[in-house]
Amino acid sequence: MKIKLLLTLTLIVLLITSLEAQPANDDCANAEFITVTTLLQSITFDLTDAVVNSESGCAGDGLADYIDVWYEFIMPTSGNLYINGGVSVNKFNIYDSCNGNELTCFSTNEYVENLIQGNTYVLRVHRWLPQHTENNQSFSIYALQPLTNDSCVDSTNITVGETLQTIDFNIVEAEINNEIGCDGESLDDFKDIWYNFTMPVDGILEMSSGTNNRFSIYDSCNGNQIVCFDGNFNNTPFIIDNLTQNENYTLRVFRSNLNSSINQFFTIRYIEPTYPNCNNVETITVTTDLQTIDIGLDNTTYNYEFGCDENDLDQFGNYWYEFTMPVNGNLYIKTSIRNRLAILDSCDGTVLKCFDSSMENMEDELFFLNKVIEDLVQGQTYTLRIYRPINTPSTIFDEQFDIRAFERLSNDNCATPDIISGLTSENTQIPFFLKAGNVTTDDTCEGESDFRILEAFWQVTMPITGNLFIDTPNGNGIAVYDACSGNELFCNASEGSLESFKLISNLIEGDTYIIRCFNTERGLISDSFQSLNVRVYNRAANDECIDAEVIPSITEVSQEISFDTFGSLINLEESCSGFIPENFVDVWYEFTMPDFTYLNFESYQFNFFSIYDACNGNETHCFAGFESVENLVPNQTYILRVFQRQTEMFHPNKSFNIYGSNTVLSLEDFNASSITLYPNPTTNYITIDTKAIVETVEIYSISGKRVLQTSQTQNISTQQLEKGIYIIKIQTDYGQITKRMIKR
Fold it and tell me: Which of 243, 402, 417, 667 could form a disulfide with 334 if both were Cys (CB 3.0 to 4.6 A apart)?
């Protein structure tokens, strides 16, 4: 009996102890009232001894073992409520009453939207049973003041001043809208708030902010978007230029990181740009010789000011020079493309020319900006402004510029061409300075527009009926016309291909033609000297099959046959039978097949050959360069066509060797692939890789002039060569091979 009584008392004590440890707000009926305000407060709870319930976490979830405590509060303002539980094990439900509707369910933290001032709400804090003893049993809570500028029509006015001001905001309480961020983007969930301001000056708006924030500026509500940008713009302020004094603008602040409360601010100010002030002018002496001027990029201050015009605003640093023009003509300036330049008629005077490098092709070699300022007057003093934006990276090429004066060409207009007379098949070289030419916005070639162009003109009367050969170095373009404003017979805008060395065929004795040499302003190189090379050629005697030249008797001893296609007509025709027609030049031969099994040809890879059984007959063989031809009938007469592409004819290897044999040549031992040339294209050197013994190496310009001869094979210097295409003849103990090299 005593034992039973003792056991009963023990159970009662344990029950009482358990009831005392259980939280008072362990169920909704006993929810603890908390006073929610717009100030952040922290609430501590204890789930350690809460009753375990088999229930749902969020409405609609399955049953599980949860423990919870309950709170009740009255919403102090209509709007949003922020709850932060700190860790993911803390989970929250908000209801409109005990056993009422669940308004939201979340873990960790949440902005709860659209709660009503004066309404009472129930808050449940719960954890899954295995996590109930973990730390961090607290949460913070506050109500957010309702937004007054979460729509464009309710935008807040701000006064933009010259002094930088900081605008704080609380965008997290804004409504979520599925909308476009910047124009052209796809729909996404954003929160946004709105401001409006009046621009006090014509000028610049400078804004900055932190991550998460994005900005758009419009000319009105539902108007045109002027600019859209991220607040953390490369860690530098963002500049909005070309805003107009007294105009009203709308500013939208938005973000897609919906619940982040960091960086809820932006800075803003206006900047009234100034016109560049010509001061600390350095006097330089400009002559007709090229000179280099050091700039000194570290010795300047940067101000918000205009560049070329009022649409060009930035923080610029200026370098000012003054010079007197030594001749009537053009001024050539070459500087880094990162440096901009302007010519004024005096210090703080009228801008005569201004060049913005942003309009240039940023892929130009070494980023050089070549500019020609035309029609300057001898004896007059001018001011040169070199300027650059503050954030432009500096390199060694930015530290200096080249400058030179040129007396104006007399033949820079088609109406006043220079006369070229006495032309023969020997080269006539005509030197000139294209930088002294006329600057125009004319087309390069017919139907092809480009940037500013400089050009010069010559007139030639053909002394014979035949072909005219023209080339010009230094990357210039060539065009030929039958008269001023007449028909364009040929035009090639760049020396980037072999075609700029041009043969114009079938010109008439006594007829007059116009030659135009031109280049884009940005394509001009530092070297001032240019030349025009002109030759004429009589019609080749064997230019037609009917006039084929007879090859002497062919034996086993190799004989060299030289040919010249400069007097040939240019024909649009097939290379080998069945191929697509191209422009070719050709000469014709006739030969009798000797009593051998093979007829062997050795020539340059760009020389092509076709064998026919007769004029206008059947093509039996077609090949290029190096070949052993079989199945020709001894003692039968054949026609040999030797031809070249118009674009590949300007090389010095105009010959072929021909002989008979009863064994086939070993192509494995001797062909173009047996020799490797690298690097190709090259800049400073080339190396020849071959197992053969190299006896000599000769480099020829595309016009046939030998420019280098050596016995080296490793690191052959090409530094002294101008950029362009070259032919390399490599003589080995197996024979001669030719290669094409491009110098950049």
Answer: 402
Residues 412-433: what's their mean pLDDT?
A: 90
Alpha-carbon Rg for the chain in angstroms: 43
Local structure of 143: helix, strand or coil: strand
Q: Residue 288, CB half-sphere, CA atoms under 13 Å: how many?
A: 11
> Shortest CA distance to 307 belongs to which of 280, 275, 353?
275
In this prediction, residues 16-36 reach a mean pLDDT of: 79
Please say whether the structural domain 20-143 has been given the CATH code 2.60.120: yes
Q: Is 522's pLDDT higher than 80?
A: no
**320 and 347 in contact (C-beta within 8 Å)?**
yes
Instruction: Quote the mean pLDDT of the chain.
Output: 84
The confidence band for 306, taking pLDDT boundaries of 50, 70 and 90, is confident
> By CB neighbour count within 10 A (0-12 exposed, 13-18 middle, 19+ buried), where does 130 fall?
exposed
Q: How far is the C-alpha of 716 from the C-alpha of 631, rounded, in Å?
A: 44
Fold match between domain 20-143 and domain 282-407: yes
Domain spanning 418-537, CATH architecture: Sandwich (2.60)
Could you give phi then psi for residue 499, rounded to 5 degrees?
A: -70, -15
Segment holding 8, helix H or strand E = helix 2-21
Q: Over the stretch 637-655, which tens digit does the pLDDT of each residue have?
A: 999 999 998 878 877 788 9
φ, ψ for residue 166 (rounded to 5)? -110, 130
Q: C-alpha distances in angstroms, 144 versus 94, 114, 147, 661?
A: 17, 11, 9, 101
Distant-in-sequence, close-in-space partners of 202: CB < 8 Å, separation ≥ 6: 243, 244, 245, 272, 310
Biggest CA pair distance of the chain: 148
Q: Is the pLDDT of residue 451 over 70?
A: no
205 sits in the region (left: phi over 0; alpha: psi -120 to 50; else beta) called beta
Spell out the domain ranges in the chain: 20-143, 152-271, 282-407, 418-537, 545-661, 672-743
> Does 458 have pLDDT greater than 90?
yes
| Topology of domain 152-271, CATH | Jelly Rolls (2.60.120)
Q: CA-CA distance, 477 to 37, in Å (whole number)?
A: 79
pLDDT tens string 351-379: 998 887 554 444 334 456 788 899 999 99
Report the half-sphere exposure of 674 (CA within 13 A, side-chain side): 19
> CA torsion 174→175→176→179, rounded to 10°?
-90
Return the pLDDT at 634. 95
- Which CATH number applies to 672-743? 2.60.40.3080
Question: What fold, for 545-661?
Answer: Jelly Rolls (2.60.120)
Q: What tokens does 339 get?
A: 């440096």
